[in-house]
Amino acid sequence: MGVFVKIILVFALFITVFFAENKDIGALPKGAKVKIYGGTIELLEIVNPEIIKSKFESRFTYDKSNNQKLKELASKYKLKDVVAGGKTEFDRMVFLSDWVHRQFKKFGQPTKKTVNALEILEETQKNGVFYCAQYSSVLISSCYSLGWVARELGLHKLLGNPGSTEHSVTEVWSNQYRKWVILDPTFNIFIEKDGLPLNGNEIRDEYFRNNGEDLTYVKGAEKQKYKKSDLPIKYRDLAGFSVNAAYIDWYSFLFFMDNSDYLDNPPGYSNKCFMIVDERNSAVKWHKREVPKDKKEAYWTLGEAKMSLTAGGNAELKIALTTNTPDFDAFLVKTDAGEWKETGAAFAWGLKPGLNKLTVTTRNMSGINGPENSVSLKFEQ
After folding, report:
1. From CA 70, how far away is CA 75, in angstroms rounded?
2. Domain boundary at 298, 328, 350, which?
3. What is d(CA 288, CA 119) in angstroms, rounded to the nearest whole number?
4. Phi and psi (nearest 5°) for 287?
5. pLDDT tens profile 214-253
6. pTM of the model
């Protein structure tokens, strides 16, 4: 009988180890305990979001860090110095948007037909005049020159409020917030809710939900905040334009450009572009482009180092990393409170008795790190 019990126990142990070796431990719930070779792990905490992929990204053209025009832009205008005072990545992005806004002296019919940031900035020094599309173009290329990914959104009003029916803004991928966020360099603002900066579709949803009653408009590098009741925000250099309560009506329609390499190629406006339109604004006619079935497709994620964790050899886990990072350079890893080190896409993580923490991220060719993913666990031999 004793032999029989031992056989059952050995078989159960084999099954447990087999399970751990073939199952992605990172997909287990917090608090799960798993037997691996050499001991037992308890999953304490994990940050490891899924990578959102999209067919729309596959037809989108990013700019490249090896573009000499980007290097010229960053060097000529000392853009690293422009953003140096920012304490966080998003602070630096806001500083850059603020700087772009201040390069333009007057808003109006462009004195030169171009979306090339170098040409636009040269023209502004001669008191050249430009529209919002050129503000956005300069911010997009300036972002790429510092290693950040950005894209242009075209907007269109639903209600026909006074002023221009169309507007252009910039969406930047924020590694800090793990999301796309809107920066409007024309009006030198971004929009937040509960302290979190919003992307175009989030602003759109707030507009249709309650006309933006819960939104905060944040202006300039000083981040002066305005609630809806504080509007309008007035500007000396925008020919009578202001940020008023009707501003977010522009976000009724979202038109996503198919490229952002504006130093070499203007916006394509091709059928690779796509739009967000639904029953809330379909009665108003504007451009016609493909509409994502799921709005998440418009908001693919970047820079994440997605982890897969399975049992490895004695007291170790096998880690496999995947990512979607434009201009990808390397994966980085650190254990516990150690230093960042480069790693391959697959490696073994040796565990010590007690608490263990693994943190991973990506780095692009401009030296910008992506969001940090991590797993914390307790290991008992």
Report:
1. 9
2. 298
3. 31
4. -65, 160
5. 999 999 999 999 999 999 999 877 767 889 999 999 999 9
6. 0.92
